[in-house]
């Protein structure tokens, strides 16, 4: 008896799920049909800033697997086909071919929803003017590159100073632009505490990127030719030959909402640990359209990140394919960089801890990436949060140069394991002068945080 | 009532203990006397290869704290003073001033033994010839540098291909020497499994370092001037203008043995978790002269490594100073490099697992340090061992280029936490294209190892 799996969304989560299910179930046992409304499947959205900036030469390098390659693996991937309706009771989806306009219903035995996220496009006057770009899809990236080619001026404004914002600031700097970043919060990287964000701000200043905090964009101004010419805030106008929006994303769950599937407070689908949509035995969801459990705060969060999407896909594929796997949750690890400045965070910020009622102590230490005497030893700032009394690790933020970002993995594993900072002080981490001071910066932070826990009582 | 703490050995463990005790107890409460037989205190022995190789310009950069600085902190550090006898019942040590020859007894209330390790110098003909060098102390390093200055020839032989051996091979290569490494095992880095050691071998070949495996040195040959001229094995003679011994170290515990203190099978002092010598309420020991518990195998090991010595010192200092701290053990993490090749290991090798009766599965994967499309993405080989059936992580070995070594920390924390490879597959590690593929190499290894655990049954 041949079952049919339908996958909505042909990117990381959807195609990982499809591929993993295919590994476990032969075409004679499970038919797999996947619908993707865009022009590309299985591409690295995280790589777009590096393509725009010129570190990655060709668009196609960002494509992990082409539609043809998926089809060779017996996955019936239909591109440019949008799912317009989900009929849960009828176990079917309605699709529209975006080229021909043809509509059809496709039945499923099992369904995977991997519709991703969509960029927040604030409804500002001028937001749709030519020269204003999002950077979520490869088409977006190409359109931006075309604009960079077309514009004569070299002034760029980036709206938003989160991951995409700072990465796009670097990309535009690499392309020779004079870059201004307008940010609602006082400091860039609001996923860090403001004191750590200030370090990023200072480094961006040093790179010649103008970062304006507390800037609420009110409109996009255009010239006589209709092309963007400036971005306006309450206080000022910032001339711009090109504008990039890095204003965050929200789960793309219109379809799921219309079908009555359970959504969380952030608008993402709610699943169980096997990534099954709550209350629906034969529907799974993963990637940027779901909410995930934050293992540190115990709350649901929405995090759009390719590495989670891939894991979700694996877990879903295993379960759909008759195996068993779970995704227990995240600890909120994220790394980024602006030129040589590395930025990393995991776990809770001060404000997160307060929000969930955790009393904490926090310590910030300065250390170096290598033994102080070893060439290339670079300064690194590590901020650590631990719960009062118990000393349980709550979060770590790191800003530094080479070797800073991936050190956050130490804390990510420790958070997952529920370690205390006291346990962390004796972790057996790799030490040799080219790689670390004799006390790794994370251990230095753990020692000082332990002292702070004790003196806080 | 003023107590006296005596510390034997003025390097990492001893002086960390002294410093930490001083932080907790004022000079009026605790007198601290430390004896060091050498010319230097608190120096980084791990840094010597980089000084010899020219990465570190000045010897004094390797000195973390001078004797004067210790004395300013009210630690009575007596240099060039050897402890020649330990009278446990009488609570006193006999010392000899190595300059004047004067002997004296000094009583103690509390004692810290931090006598370190001494290099294994095989009793070979010619081993004491000029031009043959150990590299354990700063004096050794200076003597070697003097030899490099003095010799006209440019052929160097390194005996031993462990950490010191490979690091010294790099140092001598940097100094323009033609380097041959003679190694007893078939592959360099016997702290790795041979299949991973082979990757190091190949990389050393590529650098122009000749590595000879299965080479048992029988004698050192000298010229008419008495200076070394070659190293002989059973099979061959290797011309040498300078010879460096990297043949390992053993705990320096002659004093402790004579005093009847408990030693383990590796000749190191045995302590409890508070680093107190077993059965002796007022004697602590730490650093390269003790054995430590391997948390993965449950066996005692001897590991001479500055980062452990510093932790031991902290723990001892806390306990001596009236606080409380413990050192639970190690998981056996070590990192090193030969030029751009990074080498890392933690936990058990295959042979270690067999020795303690653990059934295991093992998998080796190839991945990259960054997203494949990101500039500078370098190949990385990760070998992982997990226990059969339970899937508990047992060990990880990594060989690769930039970004390889410190990734072992992920496994070090996971080992400490007793994680299974299944738990590791969903670890929330830092991901961005400049730092990692979307599946970190350690996660790729965990996934494949999980599959191997399942199919092994």
From TrEMBL, chains A, B:
Protein origin, superkingdom: Bacteria
Tagged with keyword DNA repair: no
Q: Where is the Pyridine nucleotide-disulphide oxidoreductase dimerisation domain?
A: 336-438
Q: Which residues form the FAD/NAD(P)-binding domain?
A: 4-310
The reply to whether Oxidoreductase figures as a keyword in the UniProt entry is yes
Q: Which Pfam families match?
A: Pyr_redox_2, Pyr_redox_dim
Q: Which cofactor does it need?
A: FAD
Alphabetically sorted, this entry's keywords are: FAD, Flavoprotein, Oxidoreductase, Redox-active center
Q: Which family does it belong to?
A: Belongs to the class-III pyridine nucleotide-disulfide oxidoreductase family.
Protein's name in the database: FAD-dependent oxidoreductase
Q: Which organism is it from?
A: Streptomyces lateritius
């Amino acid at each position: 008896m041949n079952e049919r799996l339908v996958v909505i969304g042909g990117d990381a989560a959807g195609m990982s799920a499809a591929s993993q299910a295919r590994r476990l179930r032969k075409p004679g046992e499970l038919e797999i049909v996947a619908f993707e409304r865009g022009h590309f499947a299985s591409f690295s959205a995280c790589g777009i800033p590096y393509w725009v900036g010129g570190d990655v030469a060709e668009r196609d390098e960002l494509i992990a697997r082409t539609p043809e390659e998926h089809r060779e693996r017996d996955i019936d991937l239909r591109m440019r086909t949008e799912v317009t309706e989900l009929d849960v009771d009828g176990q079917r989806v309605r699709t529209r071919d975006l080229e021909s306009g043809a509509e059809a219903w496709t039945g499923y035995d099992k369904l995977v929803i991997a519709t991703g996220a969509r960029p927040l496009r604030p409804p500002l006057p001028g937001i749709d003017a030519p020269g204003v770009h999002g950077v979520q899809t490869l088409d977006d990236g190409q359109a931006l590159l075309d604009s960079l080619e077309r514009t004569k001026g070299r002034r760029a404004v980036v709206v938003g100073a989160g991951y995409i914002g700072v990465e796009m600031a670097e990309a535009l700097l690499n392309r020779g632009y004079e870059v201004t970043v307008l940010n609602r919060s006082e400091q860039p990287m609001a996923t860090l505490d403001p004191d750590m964000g200030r370090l990023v701000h200072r480094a961006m200043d040093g790179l010649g990127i103008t970062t304006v905090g507390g800037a609420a964009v009110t409109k996009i101004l255009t010239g006589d030719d209709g092309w963007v010419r400036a971005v306006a805030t309450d206080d000022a106008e910032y001339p711009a030959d090109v504008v990039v929006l890095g204003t965050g994303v929200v789960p793309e769950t219109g379809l799921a909402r219309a079908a009555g599937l359970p959504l969380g407070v952030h608008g993402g689908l709610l699943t169980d640990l096997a990534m099954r949509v709550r209350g629906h035995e034969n529907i799974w969801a993963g990637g940027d359209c779901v909410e995930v459990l934050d293992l540190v705060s115990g709350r649901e969060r929405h995090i759009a990140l390719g590495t989670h999407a891939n894991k979700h896909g694996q877990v879903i594929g295993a379960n759909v394919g008759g195996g068993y796997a779970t995704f227990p949750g995240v600890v909120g690890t994220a790394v980024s960089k602006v030129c040589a400045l590395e930025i990393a965070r995991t776990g809770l910020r001060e404000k997160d801890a307060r929000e969930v009622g955790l009393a904490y102590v926090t310590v910030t230490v300065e250390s170096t990436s290598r033994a102080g005497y070893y060439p290339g030893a670079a300064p690194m700032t590590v901020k650590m949060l631990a719960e009062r009394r118990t000393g349980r690790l709550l979060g770590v933020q790191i800003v530094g140069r080479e070797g800073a970002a991936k050190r956050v993995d130490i804390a990510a594993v420790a958070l997952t394991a529920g370690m205390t900072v006291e346990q962390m002080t004796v972790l057996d981490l790799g030490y040799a002068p080219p790689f670390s001071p004799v006390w790794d910066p994370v251990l230095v932070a753990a020692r000082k945080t332990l002292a702070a826990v004790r003196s806080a009582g």
